[in-house]
Design brief:
This protein is an alpha/beta fold and 228 residues long. The chain has helices spanning 16-29, 40-44, 60-68, 81-93, 106-113, 143-152, 166-177, 198-205; strands at residues 50-54, 73-78, 99-103, 119-125, 153-163, 182-188, 211-217. It is globular.
């Protein structure tokens, strides 16, 4: 059976500049997952906390966070090439050494290529809400996905979700509340580290409330990860 995808790969126009970025900069900033878990310290060339952004879109938020937090390494996963090309150009122009990019389905990266307890934070900002009820099965926040997030987060690490769809926020709370590896930090105002996004602005223009949901990874729960 074909897996249910949380995205549709309808790629927009790839500009010549974005294509050049993919050709010339992906070898420098990109990671090509092979079999087994990634060596994140080797990929970044240092030991530092790693934040993963899933589905970074055009890369504006990831670029801004990396520029503001040089002490953190940022791993971005995206499937759409125009957004990847745009991000590559931006981080290269600003000389940001703390960003690496993977072009792949994030669910596969989580499942197959990230070591246990390797991330300090997982960020999922404004994923496709799939608002029609018959499409809810396509929403990325499902129990198997949350289980993989729990596995890759270090104890005390945070899973930060944001959406401007009330029913998707309720769905996220329901799935996370039922997983014993997480405790809610709470529904908060937008944390200072999260930049405003164009999706957020679009939602607010439509009268949507924005929900920032933060959950902390508990030690010794949910995945059998043991801590000393």
């Amino acid at each position: 059976m074909r897996p249910v995808r949380s995205f549709v790969l309808r790629e927009g126009r790839l500009t010549p500049a974005q294509q050049r970025a993919l050709d010339e900069l992906m070898p420098r900033y990109g990671i090509e997952p092979e079999s087994g878990p990634l060596d994140l310290a080797g990929a970044f060339g240092r030991e530092a906390p790693v934040w993963l952004e899933i589905g970074f879109g055009n890369g504006d938020a990831l670029h801004a966070m990396a520029a503001s937090h040089p002490e953190v390494d940022f791993l971005g996963v995206e499937v759409h090439r125009p957004g990847i090309g745009r991000l590559l150009r931006a981080i290269d122009e600003d000389g940001l050494p703390n960003v690496r990019v993977i072009q792949a389905d994030a669910t596969e990266v989580l499942r197959d290529h990230l070591p246990d307890a390797s991330l300090a934070r997982v960020l999922l900002f404004f994923p496709d809400p799939w608002p029609k009820k018959r499409h809810h099965k396509r929403r990325i926040v499902q129990p198997p996905f949350v289980q993989q997030v729990a596995r890759v987060l270090e104890p005390g690490g945070v899973f930060h979700l944001a959406t401007d769809w009330d029913d998707y926020a309720d769905h996220m709370r329901d799935v996370l509340t039922k997983h014993d590896a997480f405790e809610p930090v709470g529904d908060t105002e937008r944390p200072a580290y999260r930049p405003r996004t164009r999706f957020e602005q679009r939602g607010e223009d439509r009268g949507h409330a924005v929900h920032d949901l933060l959950y902390r990874r508990l030690a010794g729960k949910g995945t059998g990860i043991e801590t000393g």
